[in-house]
Amino acid sequence: MRMGATIERWFVRVVSAILALFAFIAIAINIVNAIGRTYFGAPLDWADEVLSYGFMWAVFLGSALLVLRDDHIRIDLASNFLPRRAIKAVRALLLIITGLFCGYVALHSYEVVESALRSGRRSVVVGMPMSWAHGSIFFGFVFMSLLALLRGGADILRLIWAPKDL
After folding, report:
1. 68-105 CB burial, b ≥16 within 10 A, e <16
2. pTM for this structure?
3. DSSP secondary structure letter of residue 79
């Protein structure tokens, strides 16, 4: 369990640092673009494209963090009516189902990434390989799948080994 907590802390720190860097770069690009457009009549032609693809990466990496922290959106209407142990079991089962669904999406998004790699498609303005843009969806869903399955599995094991009065 100790190793899992260390890996979790490391993952949170690395992804949080990447997201902070994305935010800093996005703000800087927006400021430079606004100044260039407003005062010099020379906007950055590539700004919108770079920001769009950067936001895609930020959203999908951030989603993995939400799964890890159990901060994702859920409807927990039943939690008012179920015993505490049943709520934990339902949440663990939902994490497993979520992990399987995310794995399914990741599998299909890989096909899109592979297609973009084979075709050599590039973005219009920057010329970035489109496999990088589509890769954000793939990696985001791979991380979400792995984290949901690991968390759900760990929660189920805790329920099995925990005292029955939980």
Report:
1. beeeeeeeeeeeeeeeeeeebbebbeebbebbeebbeb
2. 0.86
3. G
